[in-house]
Design brief:
Order of helices and strands: EHEEEEEEHH
Helix content: 25-40%
Strand content: 35-45%
Largest sheet: 7 strands, antiparallel
Number of helices: 3
Number of strands: 7
């Protein structure tokens, strides 16, 4: 398994909407150009859909598991990706992506997609840290 993670100054409750809402993925993952069929406000376990990645045709995916507020997993072909937020003391968190695939594919992903994953978890951590806490502000 390949693990990519970043510490985040925001609490899991702040990170989760960014992580789980397909319409918000572009805010921290600029290579994601859209997604459909995976859920509206949050990804939905069992949902089949597609994600449009920059420079690629739509990639068909299936959401295989959701642990609300903590993690969700999808499968795209031979690749399984768990998207997670783990709580830390002091209201902080760790955001992460865990990729698993057959060994030859993992080796290729480490070299090609690994740098993107490292950048994306750091971007998610920064974006979440800039988000107001739930219930703050607004009209």
């Amino acid at each position: 398994m390949l693990r990519y993670e970043a510490r985040c100054a925001a609490a899991p409750a702040v990170v989760w909407p960014l992580l789980a809402c397909p319409a918000r993925w572009e805010e921290w993952a600029p290579h994601v150009r859209g997604a459909w069929g995976l859920g509206e406000r949050e990804v939905r376990a069992g949902a089949w859909g597609a994600v449009l990645l920059f420079g690629l045709a739509p990639v068909p995916v299936r959401v295989t598991a959701v642990d609300p507020g903590r993690s969700w997993t999808w499968r795209a072909g031979l690749l399984t990706v768990r998207h997670r937020v783990d709580p830390l003391d002091g209201g902080h968190s760790v955001v992460g992506l865990d990729l698993s695939a057959p060994r030859p594919l993992e080796l290729a992903l480490r070299a090609t997609y690994g740098p993107v994953c490292r950048w994306v978890v750091a971007a998610l951590a920064r974006r979440a840290a800039a988000e107001p806490p739930p219930g703050a502000g607004g009209w």
